[in-house]
């Protein structure tokens, strides 16, 4: 099995739709760190699991400096964003979304 990992920083705003009072219900921003993990039994014709540039185009270039509530069709929690990242890249099996130094969420396919 071949593995790659791509880490990128994304500056983006969002607000959360919650059923309780929280400051996170108000628009705010983060410098998100998103780590994308991909794997493949075989390398593609170019000798890669997946091109790092392809990952950046699908994730960073789409989300960076955007309002995640406008860009994503769900409540943009770190958990939901991690799942979305995995769904964007066929070779991706795990994504970690860190919204601050102490807050991280990840999604991993079984």
UniProtKB/TrEMBL annotation:
Binds 1 zinc ion per subunit. It catalyses: 7,8-dihydroneopterin 3'-triphosphate + H2O = 6-carboxy-5,6,7,8-tetrahydropterin + triphosphate + acetaldehyde + 2 H(+). Belongs to the PTPS family. QueD subfamily. It comes from the Bacteria. Pfam families: PTPS. Gene3D superfamilies: 6-pyruvoyl tetrahydropterin synthase/QueD. The active site is at residues 24, 65, 99. It comes from Candidatus Gallipaludibacter merdavium. Zn(2+) binds at residues 14, 28, 30. Pathway: Purine metabolism; 7-cyano-7-deazaguanine biosynthesis. This is 6-carboxy-5,6,7,8-tetrahydropterin synthase. Transmembrane segments: none annotated. GO terms for molecular function: 6-carboxytetrahydropterin synthase activity; metal ion binding. Its EC number is 4.-.-.-. Its cofactor is Zn(2+). One of its GO terms (biological process) is tRNA queuosine(34) biosynthetic process. Keywords: Lyase, Metal-binding, Queuosine biosynthesis, Zinc.
């Amino acid at each position: 099995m071949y593995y790659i990992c791509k880490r990128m920083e994304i500056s983006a705003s969002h607000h959360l739709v919650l059923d309780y009072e929280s400051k996170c219900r108000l628009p705010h921003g983060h410098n998100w760190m998103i780590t994308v993990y991909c794997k493949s039994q075989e390398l593609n014709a170019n000798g890669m699991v997946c091109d790092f540039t392809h990952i950046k185009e699908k994730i960073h270039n789409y989300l960076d400096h955007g309002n995640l509530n406008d860009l994503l069709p769900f409540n943009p929690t770190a958990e939901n964003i991690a799942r979305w990242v995995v769904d964007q890249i066929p070779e991706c099996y795990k994504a970690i979304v860190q919204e601050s130094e102490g807050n991280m969420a990840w999604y991993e396919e079984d």
